[in-house]
Amino acid sequence: MTTAPLRVALGGFGAIGQAVARRLDQGIDGLELAAVSARDHEKAKANMAGFKNPVPVLELEELADVADVVVECAPSKVFDLLANSAIEQGRIFLPISVGALLPRMALIERARQTGATILVPTGALLGLDAVRAAAEGEVESVRLVTRKPPGGLAGAPHLVENGISVEGLSEAKLVFKGSARDGAVGFPANVNVAAALSLAGIGPDETTLEIWADPGVSRNTHTISVEADSARLTMTIENIPSEENPRTGKITALSVIAALRRLTATLQVGT
């Protein structure tokens, strides 16, 4: 018996959305692109000009009507609209703005009631499988140190509100030290990785975060340190920033594609 492919809708059609859409249009077994949403509908249609199967450009709240899976890859200010519509209709919801999920944990209980699933992609991080495994035992501490080129942090609410400048730096500058929860609020476009790590491990209040503006790095760099009764983990990833958006690593879109592929894969590797 042939199973109908899962229909995927993309809430956002920027650097991440377009990369994911192109891969779906090229063909992934068991998946099909159903629709996208974008602020500028005409521009979105133009960006699909080379697609084999262009799809409709809909409003954000319409995506869950035509899809089994809704991917959030839009500015975090529209998170509620996408999340609520997907969860109320019992869809699979993939949020990229993971930091926006932390103050909305009631969505998890609502998803349980409606039959929806919230699937957080690994994104620009690494090692979440190991952290999740360690969290089945006793974890003493989880720490994330993020280093980014200063331009990738410019304009973050925490910097603006505290009068912290990252211009003209000649050496690395510590611009934030605190919990993952507070970091996600102060740097909503930068540290969704911290939110994802906290959800995989010991929670947003116990996960500690440092953010450095570092003129000596050209890649967004994240180092995880975990002390647990099962293992000591130290892992570092250096992500190449997207040309379209230096706040986002190229690997983020690939992580979404991998998460989508896993939904229908016969062989799945990793816990």
Kindly describe this structure.
The protein folds into two domains: 133 residues, NAD(P)-binding Rossmann-like Domain (Rossmann fold, 3-Layer(aba) Sandwich); 119 residues, Dihydrodipicolinate Reductase, domain 2 (2-Layer Sandwich), CATH 3.30.360. It is 31% helix and 24% strand. Helix 4 links the parallel strand 4 and strand 5. The protein is globular. The protein starts with 5 loop residues before the first strand and ends in a 7-residue tail after the last helix. The model has no long low-confidence stretch (mean pLDDT 93).
Low-confidence spans: pLDDT under 50, at least 5 residues? none
**Per DSSP, what share of the residues sits in E-state strands of 2 or more residues?**
15-25%
What is the assigned CATH homologous superfamily of the largest domain?
NAD(P)-binding Rossmann-like Domain
Structural class, by secondary structure, is alpha/beta
* Domain count: 2
Write the element-wise H/E pattern from the N-terminal end onward. EHEHEHEHEHEHEHEHHEEEH
Please give the share of residues in helix.
Answer: 25-40%
Which CATH-level-2 architecture of the largest domain? 3-Layer(aba) Sandwich
Overall strand count: 11
Regarding quaternary structure, what we see is single chain
- Number of helical runs? 10
Radius of gyration: 19 Å
CATH topology of the largest domain: Rossmann fold
Strand count, sense and closure of the main sheet? 6 strands, parallel
CATH class of the largest domain: Alpha Beta
Shape: globular
How far is the N terminus from the C terminus? Answer: 29 Å
Give the rounded overall mean pLDDT. 93
Give the strand order of the largest sheet, numbering strands 1, 2, ... along the chain.
Answer: 3-2-1-4-5-6
